[in-house]
């Protein structure tokens, strides 16, 4: 719904996504749908480096950082007596690594497990991105410790 509102259609939004990707320097990325999920006859791809570029760009926006660092959120249901509860699935952000600030988890059949994590310590900010990594939590922790 957001893609259709912003782009006029899903295809229009994908056009804007690819335009923005090129504008911010993502040279090895092609988006074919708004979700990033695999679809028959739709080819999309990216690289870990390009996802780091995208993350660095997104971090310029305070609202993104607030959302991507939120551990859990309760949203009152407008017409029911129960609330909607959302929990961040990025276990480094939710307490698995003390310096983790934001992150994004993902999975597609083509890319396997994907993980983006940002961390901050002593004035240094780092971004770790892994694609098709079955040991991503540990790898991100080790990359940050090395960095």
Architecture overview:
The protein has 147 residues and is an alpha+beta fold. The protein is 37% helix and 25% strand. It is built from 6 helices and 5 strands; from the N terminus they run ααααββαβββα. It has helices at residues 2-7, 10-23, 48-58, 62-69, 92-96, 136-146, and strands at residues 72-76, 83-87, 100-108, 112-121, 124-131. Strands 3-4-5 form a 3-stranded antiparallel sheet, sandwiched between helices. A two-stranded antiparallel sheet has the order 1-2. The protein is globular, with a radius of gyration of 17 Å.
Number of DSSP strands? Answer: 5
Query: Could you estimate the helical fraction of the residues in percent?
Result: 25-40%
Secondary structural class? alpha+beta
Which strand order spans the largest sheet, edge to edge or round the barrel?
A: 3-4-5
C-alpha Rg (nearest Å): 17 Å
User: Judging from the principal axes of the Cα atoms, what is the shape?
Assistant: globular
Which helices and strands occur, and which strands form pairs?
Blueprint lengths: L1 H6 L2 H14 L24 H11 L3 H8 L2 E5 L6 E5 L4 H5 L3 E9 L3 E10 L2 E8 L4 H11 L1
């Amino acid at each position: 719904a957001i893609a259709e509102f912003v782009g006029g259609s899903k295809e229009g939004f994908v056009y804007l996504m690819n335009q923005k990707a090129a504008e911010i320097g993502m040279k090895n990325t092609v988006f074919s749908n708004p979700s990033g999920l695999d679809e028959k006859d739709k080819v999309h791809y990216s690289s870990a480096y390009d996802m780091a570029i995208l993350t660095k760009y997104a971090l310029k926006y305070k609202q993104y950082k607030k959302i991507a660092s939120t551990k859990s959120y309760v949203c009152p249901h407008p017409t029911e007596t129960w609330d909607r509860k959302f929990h961040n699935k990025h276990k480094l952000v939710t307490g698995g690594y003390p310096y983790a600030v934001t992150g994004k988890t993902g999975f597609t059949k083509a890319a396997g497990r994907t993980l983006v994590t940002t961390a901050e310590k002593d004035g240094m900010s780092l971004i770790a991105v892994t694609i098709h990594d079955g040991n991503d939590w540990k790898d991100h922790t080790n990359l940050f410790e090395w960095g």
